[in-house]
Write a structure and sequence with these properties.
This protein is mostly beta strands.
Length: 145
């Protein structure tokens, strides 16, 4: 189960807008076995939901909370009638939090075949990187008329 309270703050100075957001999420963990009827992994619970299991980082009942802090800055420069230049800066995961997104809960890849990756960090959305996305900064300018 994921919980996602979102905190948004905005600070406004003359010509400068500074909204920021923090999104907190955490995932409960429990070991899952393959279904013997049709060899589907991650199908049959072996523990109660949230009971936890041994991971590469020790015993866990929950994956680490994801709390990336994102920041947006824009500064408006007005010139002429109805024309302006907006300078923009965005920072994603400002604190560079690199915790695992979750841990592999599957004890079997097929029925009776142990999963060698059981308990290791994983990201179901991106198999190449089991950790949170690193800090990213985006700079830009927008001309409005």
């Amino acid at each position: 189960m994921k919980r996602a309270p979102k905190r948004i703050a905005a600070f406004v100075l003359p010509g400068l807008a500074v909204p920021s957001a923090a999104l907190a999420q955490e995932t409960t963990t429990g070991a899952l076995a393959a279904n013997p009827a049709y060899d589907e992994p991650y199908d049959i619970p072996e523990t109660l939901r949230g009971a936890g299991f041994e991971t590469a980082d020790g015993f866990r009942r929950r994956a680490p909370a994801e709390v990336p802090l994102d920041l947006h800055l824009d500064y408006t420069i007005r010139f002429g009638a109805g024309r302006r230049l907006v300078l923009v800066a965005d920072a994603f995961n400002l604190l560079d939090d690199r915790d695992p997104v979750s841990y592999d809960p599957g004890t079997e890849v097929l029925f009776g075949v142990p999963n060698p990756a059981f308990g290791t960090p994983r990201n179901p959305a991106d198999a190449a990187s089991p950790f949170e996305t690193p800090r990213q900064v985006r700079l830009g300018a927008r001309l409005e008329w």
